Amino acid sequence: MSGAPPENSPRVVILGAGFGGIAAARALASVPVHTTIVDRNYYNTFQPLLYQVATGGLNAGDVAYPVRNLLRRRHALDFRWGTVERVDADKRAVFLGDGTELRYDFLIIATGATINYFGVPGAAEHAQAIYTLDDALAVRRRMFEQFEHAVSAGGEGGVLNVVIVGGGPTGVEMAGALAELRTLILDSSYPSLDPQMGSVLLVEQKEALLGGFEGPLAAYAQRELTRRGVEVRLSTAVREVSAGGLTINSGEEASTFLPAGLVVWAAGVAASSVAASSELALTAHGRIEVGPNLAIPGRPEVFAIGDVAATPAPGGGHPLAQLAQPAIQGGHHAAREISAALSGAQPTPFSYKDKGIMATIGRRSAVAEIALPATRRLLPLRGTPAWFAWLGLHIYFLLGGRNRAAVLLNWAWRYVSWRRGPRVIVGG
Ligand SMILES: Cc1cc2nc3c(=O)[nH]c(=O)nc-3n(C[C@H](O)[C@H](O)[C@H](O)COP(=O)(O)OP(=O)(O)OC[C@H]3O[C@@H](n4cnc5c(N)ncnc54)[C@H](O)[C@@H]3O)c2cc1C
């Protein structure tokens, strides 16, 4: 809408400026409400490309976009920088860490997920998560510092071992990028180091990588990783992580200690702490329970969307996976429901449209299951076609024209020159 809505218009508060929160805010721009979006960061992070930042392929600014820039020319949208402590649904109020109380008529909770260490001893202290921009920069800094230490130590082995825990899309993408990085960077920038002296190991508790993808695609991903020098260990559980490595065991075997310079934790996520602190009904996995239209049962004015919510899947069963599309579509739906409620219409159940899933392994290698619009059947793709589909989609979904151009140029240059992108050692 062009002008500001009347002063006494309903107030909508959105918690979280991620995929879901931004989608909801954009959709609400055409509804006569005042919207405030709250986030502990003043930028939106494009999480699917964090591993590229971690491995030096992209800069932090390429995957982050200031929330205020998204609100330009949208008069009834405010941004509030702050950490949400809890929601008091009886009082229709949100409490921030600095003591601020925000009142709402409608609330959309979209605070996403946080890392889950599944109670593995030492994991929170010694493994490096890859969930936020700071995490990605920390991984990058530690890796390049290790290369430098190895050069200073005259190329002694061991320190370059990297173990990635979790064989889902994030773990697979991280492993593929690390294998590529090792080939490219060691060759061009650290010629005194032997690329064979370090290793990239991917550990997965289940019997196959990429749960959720069809078997042949998961097997292809494993073959490609192995061909690129990644050691893949399936049916292997991590028992403990310590300063110098991690202890694993598989099946009947006794526990083995593996020395590692860096352990990257990509094993799974749990719902954001806002879910637990707000006295709302949660599922066994800590996600907020929602009804068919994504409103919380008994609270038609409160919606929960994206990773924080147990969004119902079409046909029932497990809630939808914690992925970008359920969050985006959930954001649009919550906005539509608020608009409908204001005009007195009945709630409409959320209907998820599966657009497919994809994961990249490295240059010209990816796997994808893409929903065909006419039939909604999933088309399996792998290799170069899947990689181009992955490339196009990720650039399309990046927020902001500058980010898209920067990523496109960066990748195009790397593709042509076959060199790694920016690799400044930064991050605390
Ligand atoms: C490394 C990685 C790779 C991924 N790759 C893919 C992929 O390839 N494809 C895919 O579909 N999905 C991928 N995902 C998952 C996808 O990013 C999430 O499903 C999606 O971001 C969920 O959207 P959301 O809006 O629910 O939460 P988010 O996008 O996580 O947004 C939550 C927002 O809430 C804010 N927030 C949280 N707690 C508070 C608080 N207490 N106070 C204030 N603000 C708060 C956060 O700062 C964040 O901005 C990946 C995730 C990760 C971590």
Secondary structure layout plus pairing:
Layout: E1 11-15, H1 19-28, E2 34-39, E3 43-45, H2 50-54, E4 64-66, H3 67-71, E5 77-81, E6 84-88, E7 93-96, E8 101-103, E9 106-109, E10 113-115, H4 123-126, E11 128-129, H5 133-152, E12 162-165, H6 169-188, E13 200-203, H7 215-227, E14 230-233, E15 237-242, E16 245-249, E17 256-259, E18 262-265, E19 269-271, H8 273-277, E20 288-289, E21 295-296, E22 299-304, E23 309-310, H9 324-342, E24 356-362, E25 365-371, E26 378-382, H10 384-397, H11 401-417
Parallel strand pairs: 1-2, 1-9, 2-5, 9-22, 11-18, 12-13, 12-18, 13-14, 20-23
Antiparallel strand pairs: 3-4, 6-7, 7-8, 10-19, 15-16, 16-17, 21-22, 24-25, 25-26
Helix pairs in contact: 1-9
Flavin-adenine dinucleotide binds at residues 16-21, 38-41, 47-48, 50-51, 83-84, 110-112, 130-131, 169-170, 272, 274, 306-308, 322-325, 327.
Structure notes:
- By secondary structure, the chain is of the alpha/beta class.
- Helices cover 31% and strands 25% of the residues.
- The protein is built from eleven helices and 26 strands.
- It has helices spanning 19-28, 50-54, 67-71, 123-126, 133-152, 169-188, 215-227, 273-277, 324-342, 384-397, 401-417; strands spanning 11-15, 34-39, 43-45, 64-66, 77-81, 84-88, 93-96, 101-103, 106-109, 113-115, 128-129, 162-165, 200-203, 230-233, 237-242, 245-249, 256-259, 262-265, 269-271, 288-289, 295-296, 299-304, 309-310, 356-362, 365-371, 378-382.
- The strands form eight sheets. Strands 5-2-1-9-22-21 form a six-stranded mixed beta sheet. A five-stranded parallel beta sheet has the order 11-18-12-13-14.
- β1, α1 and β2 (34-39) form a beta-alpha-beta unit.
- The longest helix has 20 residues, at 133-152.
- It is globular and about 70 Å long.
- The mean pLDDT is 89.
- Residues 16-21, 38-41, 47-48, 50-51, 83-84, 110-112, 130-131, 169-170, 272, 274, 306-308, 322-325, 327 line the site of flavin-adenine dinucleotide.
- The site of flavin-adenine dinucleotide (FAD) has 33 residues, from α1, β2, α2, α6 and α9.
